[in-house]
């Protein structure tokens, strides 16, 4: 006759086997969920200045400040196994040293903005992104000015669902600096949208730009190529407000995402 300890061990082993099988089935089942993400990313403005880009910077150097327009529909990335999506935008540009066939040098890539967008069923977190209030188009009749649509602390606009992002003239969260200390007049730069889907169980999935089965690749999500401008002349003044970064409303509840 088995002892109580052996019986408990057998029950626990059976339970973990069933739990693992169910988790594996859930993780694999997301392949049946169709995905068709789309996004529009446009450069709004780019400025280059010289100074201390961060309060921790020990020296003055050139840094770039980029504003952009972003419109995404990533609702199909949210299914029964999606916990949250880490959304971020990178700026890539050729390295300061020229690449050769014998010594290839990849492009420099810098994150300028990011956000944690959870599913509605996910628990709240201090670093969860809060979508800014969308300002309606101005009306000629001042008495009938529409009220701004508040997101009410949600990571998407009012009346929308997770995966919808509508940003206009959005400031970056991070400035762009280069290891060489110079960023002015760099050419062939590009803004690109990326994401990382964190499931409840299973493997992380990254930005998909190709079609695999029922998962379609991202449509859009990349800006046209642009060049960084030269440094402003001493006679030109740059307002500090124009070079401020945005941390989002989530800063009011903890560290920025």
Automatic annotation (TrEMBL):
It is found in: Endoplasmic reticulum membrane. It holds the Pfam family SPC22. GO terms for cellular component: signal peptidase complex. Residues 237-257 have a biased composition (Basic and acidic residues). Residues 123-165, 219-257 are annotated as: Disordered. Keywords: Endoplasmic reticulum, Membrane, Signal-anchor, Transmembrane, Transmembrane helix. Its main location: endoplasmic reticulum. The keyword Transmembrane helix applies. It is a single-pass type II membrane protein. The chain crosses the membrane at residues 12-32. InterPro entries: SPC3 (IPR007653). GO terms for biological process: protein targeting to ER; signal peptide processing. Essential component of the signal peptidase complex (SPC) which catalyzes the cleavage of N-terminal signal sequences from nascent proteins as they are translocated into the lumen of the endoplasmic reticulum. Essential for the SPC catalytic activity, possibly by stabilizing and positioning the active center of the complex close to the lumenal surface. Essential for viability. Belongs to the SPCS3 family. This is Signal peptidase subunit 3.
